[in-house]
């Protein structure tokens, strides 16, 4: 069984998912050929922008998305694959998987943005594929209305990058992720007992130099990423980490926490409702695999998998109290981190990709 596994356009987040898919399929006997779309999309976006700036007319279908994805058909035929699996294909023109079908290829999609983008065109995109894998259990029924084969695949950790460390933990709390407005609003109200280290993507308009969060976390001795103490990088305060770097950050961290995304899309007030989201994000699994203590807001999957080993919070005050206890009582913190690690062990990408490998082999 041979499959071409295409990345998304993203240089972080879903890119980590793509790497896990490739490694997980390979561990299950699938000859997975990695195909990186990000460079092509960046190139075509740059050229498209230059053409528009010079006021040159372009054919309507010459979008960066289409030009980048068109290479998939040729690559699939060149590598003589049986399947083409596309990571996060919500911006992929449906004509391209239809062309693959005409060429005798089967296509699959790994939908990484469930349930946040379930209300736009993502389920319709699924209709162009032979099989679809969703990352939230509650999304499965919706996508079954558009595609005959739909399976829920939970997020996972990569055992080659997420594993326990041997050295001592730092006296810090880390957060790796996107600075959605709801997350920033919560974090700026927490009384942090130790230094807070932030890594990720924070829109400048949400996190200006004089915001309450920057003031409050400085009082807690917060460590901002290098080069961003007094300046911004482009439009965002950002330090994007690759999986290896994230693993190192987590292994050294004294504690961390998860605030699951509420907004459907960046910069909008449209939020998901109660009962729409079941599953955990990838950071929950990676933290546990690194044996780093974590707290989290509520998701049903958190309770189903971790039981009471992950302390939950609803308010900034509750999160602050959990973190204070974690550093006042290291034995309690380490015991829960051990339990979290044990419960997360079955959720390696090698195990979660077994279902995908079985669908491709059927």
**Classification by helices and strands:** alpha/beta
Total helical elements = 15
Spell the H/E element sequence: EHEHHHEHEHEHEEHEHEHEHEHHHH
Report the CATH C-level class of the largest domain. Alpha Beta
Largest sheet: 6 strands, parallel
Give the strand order, joined by hyphens, for the main sheet.
2-1-3-4-5-6
For the record, give the distance between the C-alpha atoms at the N and C termini, rounded to a whole number.
Answer: 10 Å
What is the alpha-carbon Rg in Å?
A: 21 Å
Q: Judging by the overall fold, what is the CATH architecture of the largest domain? A: 3-Layer(aba) Sandwich
Our count of domains comes out at: 2
Helix content: 25-40%
Mean pLDDT: 87
Keywords:
single chain; 362 residues; alpha/beta; Rossmann fold; 6-stranded parallel sheet; 5-stranded mixed sheet; 15 helices; 11 strands; globular
Structural description of this entry:
The protein has 15 helices and eleven strands. With 362 residues, it is α/β, with parallel strands linked by helices. The termini are close together. The protein is globular, with a radius of gyration of 21 Å. Strand 4 (106-111), helix 6 (122-126) and strand 5 (131-134) form a beta-alpha-beta unit. It has helices spanning 14-27, 38-53, 64-69, 71-78, 95-102, 122-126, 140-144, 181-187, 212-219, 243-252, 282-289, 300-306, 316-328, 330-344, 349-361, and strands at residues 2-6, 31-35, 83-87, 106-111, 131-134, 150-152, 172-178, 195-203, 236-238, 255-258, 294-296. It has two domains: 2-153, Glycogen Phosphorylase B (Rossmann fold), CATH 3.40.50.2000; 172-347, Glycogen Phosphorylase B (Rossmann fold, 3-Layer(aba) Sandwich), CATH 3.40.50. The protein has a six-stranded parallel beta sheet with strand order 2-1-3-4-5-6, sandwiched between helices.
């Amino acid at each position: 069984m041979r499959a071409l596994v295409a990345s998304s356009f993203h240089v972080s987040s879903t890119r980590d998912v793509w790497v896990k898919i490739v490694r997980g399929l390979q561990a299950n006997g699938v000859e997975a050929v990695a195909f990186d779309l990000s460079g092509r999309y960046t190139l075509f976006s740059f050229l498209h922008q230059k053409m528009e700036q010079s006021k040159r007319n372009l054919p309507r279908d010459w979008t960066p998305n289409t030009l980048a994805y068109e290479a998939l058909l040729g690559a699939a035929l060149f590598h003589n694959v049986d399947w083409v699996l596309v990571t996060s294909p919500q911006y992929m023109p449906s004509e391209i998987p239809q062309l693959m079908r005409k060429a005798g290829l089967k296509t699959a999609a790994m939908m990484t943005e469930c349930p946040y983008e379930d209300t736009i065109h993502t389920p319709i995109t699924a209709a162009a594929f032979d099989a679809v894998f969703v990352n939230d259990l509650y999304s499965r029924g919706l996508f079954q209305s558009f595609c005959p084969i739909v399976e829920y695949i939970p997020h996972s950790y990569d055992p080659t990058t997420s594993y326990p460390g041997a050295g001592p933990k730092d006296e810090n709390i880390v957060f790796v992720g996107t600075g959605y407005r709801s997350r920033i609003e919560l974090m700026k109200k927490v009384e942090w007992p130790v230094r807070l280290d932030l890594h990720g993507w924070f829109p400048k308009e949400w996190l200006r130099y004089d915001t309450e969060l920057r003031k409050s976390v400085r009082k807690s001795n917060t460590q901002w990423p290098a080069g961003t103490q007094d300046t911004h990088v482009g439009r965002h305060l950002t330090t994007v980490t690759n999986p290896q770097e994230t693993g190192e950050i987590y292994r050294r961290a004294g504690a961390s926490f998860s605030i699951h995304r509420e907004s459907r899309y960046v910069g909008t007030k449209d939020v998901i409702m109660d009962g729409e989201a079941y599953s955990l994000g990838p950071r929950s699994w990676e933290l546990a695999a690194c044996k780093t203590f974590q707290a989290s807001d509520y998701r049903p999957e958190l309770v189903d998998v971790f039981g009471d080993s992950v302390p939950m919070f609803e308010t900034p005050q509750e999160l602050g109290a959990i973190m204070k206890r974690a550093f006042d009582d290291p034995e309690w913190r380490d015991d829960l981190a051990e339990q979290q690690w044990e419960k997360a062990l079955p959720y390696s990408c090698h195990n979660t990709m077994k279902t995908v490998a079985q669908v491709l082999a059927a």
